[in-house]
Automatic annotation (TrEMBL):
SMART domains: EXOIII, GIYc
Source species: Saccharopolyspora dendranthemae
One Gene Ontology term of the molecular function aspect: exonuclease activity
A cellular component annotation (GO) from this entry: excinuclease repair complex
SUPFAM superfamilies membership: C-terminal UvrC-binding domain of UvrB (SSF46600), GIY-YIG endonuclease (SSF82771), Ribonuclease H-like (SSF53098)
Keywords, comma-separated and alphabetical: Exonuclease, Hydrolase, Nuclease
Domain GIY-YIG intervals: 227-305
Protein name per its UniProtKB record: DNA polymerase-3 subunit epsilon
Domain UVR: start-end pairs: 412-447
GO biological process, one term: DNA replication
InterPro entries found in the cross-reference section: DnaQ, GIY-YIG_endonuc, GIY-YIG_endonuc_sf, GIY-YIG_UvrC_Cho, Ribonucl_H, RNaseH-like_sf, RNaseH_sf, UVR_dom
Highest taxon of source: Bacteria
Amino acid sequence: MPMMSAHRQLTFDEITVTDELPLHEATFVVVDLETTGGDRQNDAVTEIGAVKVRGGEVLGEFATLVNPERGIPPSVVSITGITEAMVHDAPRWDSVLPAFLEFCRGAVLVAHNAPFDIGFLRAGCERLDLTWPKPQVVDTVKLARRVLTRDETPNHKLGTLARVLGARTEPVHRALDDARATVDVLHVLLERLGPLGVRTLEDLLGHLPDVTPQQKRKRGLADSLPHSPGVYLFRGPKDEVLYIGTASDLRRRVKQYFTAGEKRSRVKEMVGISERVDHVECSHPLEAEVRELRLLSAHQPRYNRRSKFPQRAWWVVLTDEVFPRLSIVRAPRADALGPFGSRHAATAAVDALQSATTIRRCTDRLSPRKPGRPCALHELGRCGAPCAGLQSAEDYAPEVVTIRDVIRGRSGDLLDRLREELQRLSDGERYEDAADHRDRLASLVRSLDRGQRLSALASVPELVAARPDGRGGWHLSVIRHGRLASAGVARRGVPPMPVVDLLQASAETVLDGPGPLHGATADEARVIYRWLTTGGTRLVRTTDPWTEPANAAGSWRTWLEKATAGRTPYAAID
């Protein structure tokens, strides 16, 4: 997969001693993607190629085919030459993208027609729940339009620029070759900018088009910010919070808002009316992420699109009736299924649970003594028997227990029923029905797995964890009932355990709250869970064992991977 040389890439902590980073010291990763089409939401990557360069020298390369987990249109095959047979055994995007993010960590991303490639990379991060690193981006199309005259090139296509500027590699719609050609184009364009006084990375980003006058005038807002991790808050003329974000380097990140690297029109508008930038320094990135979530909830800034209402998750519960039914609610009880980011996702889970049980679906309030007439859903065969008076409460109870057991991870019988139905549909050659059923089951397993993992974490009264900081020290966190209660660092050479003792003694008091997450928000619990289970994080202390139920949906993860891969469409997956 990635091919790298022995050269070590400088980190931003090493290269941002001053804001003016010379271009010959900047690390660029030039990337190119081949895809099944141009829709970043519905199409997929088939190949990625990238070249890491600094000071005109190639430091490493990253190249691999990618299994798109779907067909490749003949029109695309005719352009790229990449066939379905070539990508059948290739790694999937969920393993390639994390590796690429590590390869380009701390570098400036470069692409020819950058919105296309960067758009697919960002969309992949969203789908895989990965953190987009918010790198600086240089688009060689826009750079060429700024540097070259109409007399020098008839157009700004990569093939044309490679020929006009004498690139050593000919672009052929294959990712690595096109990335290599873009490297040569980039170097020639940078040479052309030298006589114009463009000698630093900030000069380059400011020289690109699309930098508004307001952005240029507001550059000084970042001057007082430190080179440390934390949260930044753009404030407007009435001191209102307009936008909130996080950064591993506050000054470097905020400066990006005043360059061509910022493409979002809404954010450009926000920058134009901002009067100052406040900040909250944090011990490490986890603390910054958590503080961002809490500040978003407190201020609800109009220019942030995500996580403004962290309490507004959806949950699926059994109603408190003699003959319970499944209901979608905002305020969960302890045995709720969720959290779901949308009502649509919660509805899909309800459909899956109902398809495997005789749980009733009508909303009529029923009495064991006066069941009344059958509802319309019963006449259509889509409602449980209680509304027709054909079941007693005692006969109905096992179905309720089955649902509660699968939500709590005490039994997998309901999931087994759904898998048997999937096999029956496949054996009957009802492949389209089988595919729909498979997708419903996969969605349910994913929801159960996520909910059970977060609930297990939130049930622990206190745990202390440490993560290597990459420099011989530790990032430390005290977590109570799924919430970050304290954060700190033990730098290289500092004994960590006294720091742990101090953090525990000064940590926020967190009381056990209601619901499956014990009072924590879904977003905060999810961020903490990801931090605990990645990056070499280690548990230091815990009041109670952090465990998941023996029959939790986690035992279905292998099946879920196969179902998600979709390599055998319209067939059962064993």
